[in-house]
Amino acid sequence: MSVDTILRPAPLTTREVSFQELDNDINRPLESFPTFRWWIAISITSGMATLFLVGIYYTVFYGIGTWGNNNPVGWGFAIVNFVFWIGIGHAGTLISAILFLLRQAWRTAIARFAEAMTIFAVICALQFPLFHTGRPWLAAFWLLPLPNHNDIWVNFRSPLLWDVFAVSTYGLVSFMFWYTGLVPDFATIRDRAKHPIRKMAYGILSLGWTGSHRAWQHYEKAYLLFAGFATPLVLSVHSVVSFDFAVSVIPGWHTTIFPPYFVAGAIFSGFGMVATLIIIMRKMFKLEYLVTDDHLELMNKVIITTSMMVGFAYITELFIAWYSGVAYERYAFMNRAVGPYAWAYWTMFSCNVIFPQLLWFKKIRRSALLMYPIIILINVGMWFERFVIVVSSLHRDYLPSSWDYFTPTIIDWFLFIGSFGIFLTLMLLFCRFLPTISIAEAKAFSPGAQPSGAHHE
Amino acid sequence: MSNEKKLVGMVGLYDTPDELAGAAVKVRDAKYQKWDCHTPYPLHGLDDAMGLKPSPIPYITLSAGFVGISAALLLQGWMSAVDYPVRIGGKPMWSWPAFVPITFELFVLFSCVTIMGCVVLFCKLGKWHSPLHDSDIMKEVTSTRFAVVLDSEDSNFTEEKAQKLLEETGCKDIRPLHQIVDVEGGLI
Question: The domain containing residue B16 runs over which residues?
Answer without folding.
Answer: 3-54+128-182
